[in-house]
């Protein structure tokens, strides 16, 4: 039986908050977020796929990514890890290195919190830095809901029985 997808995502126009429960241990979920395997699950054919991920997951370490859109455009982003507390917390800055239609190249900060729960891990993302850019915040709330669904499907893949 497949685990029901339970992702919640919202914004107040300045900060985005999204969360989901995963049937996977915090250690497994943490590795899926910072390890090279992130390229395997982040994205879909209909939206965009992560095609190049590089990360030095330590305080002060840098990360870079290129996502390729469904129509073949490469969109780079990068940032710095501000806090790393394996397997519980990741705080990182993010800046698009292209002119995002609603956010531009504004630097934002994303904080991931991984909490052990009875069936695995509650993953919460708090993404701030959208002050004055309500449309960008709303788009990112939708985006984080997709990302958490992709992450959930990936970390739970080994737990599912094929129909």
Word description of this protein:
This protein is an alpha+beta fold and 163 residues long. It has 3 helices and 8 strands, in the order E-E-H-H-E-E-E-E-E-E-H. An 8-stranded antiparallel beta sheet has the order 1-2-8-7-6-5-4-3. The radius of gyration is 15 Å and the shape is globular. The mean pLDDT is 92.
Structural class: alpha+beta
How far apart are the first and last residues' alpha carbons, in Å?
Answer: 8 Å
How many individual helices? Answer: 3
CATH topology-level fold name of one domain: Alpha-D-Glucose-1,6-Bisphosphate, Chain A, domain 4
Question: Which structural traits does this protein have?
Answer:
eight-stranded antiparallel β-sheet; 163 residues; globular; Alpha-D-Glucose-1,6-Bisphosphate, Chain A, domain 4; alpha+beta; single chain
């Amino acid at each position: 039986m497949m685990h029901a997808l339970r992702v919640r995502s919202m914004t107040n126009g300045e900060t985005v908050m999204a969360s989901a429960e995963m049937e996977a241990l915090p250690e497994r979920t943490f590795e899926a977020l910072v390890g090279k395997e992130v390229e395997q699950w982040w994205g879909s054919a209909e939206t965009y796929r992560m095609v190049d991920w590089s990360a030095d997951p330590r305080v002060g370490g840098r990360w870079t990514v290129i996502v390729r859109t469904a129509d073949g455009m490469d969109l780079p982003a990068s940032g710095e890890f501000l806090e790393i507390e394996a397997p519980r917390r990741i705080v990182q800055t993010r800046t698009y290195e292209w002119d995002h239609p609603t956010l531009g190249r504004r630097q934002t900060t994303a904080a991931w919190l991984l909490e052990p729960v009875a069936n695995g891990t509650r993953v919460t993302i708090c993404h701030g830095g959208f002050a004055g850019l309500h449309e960008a915040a709303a788009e990112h709330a939708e985006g984080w809901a997709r990302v958490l669904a992709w992450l959930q499907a990936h970390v739970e893949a080994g737990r599912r029985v094929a129909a």
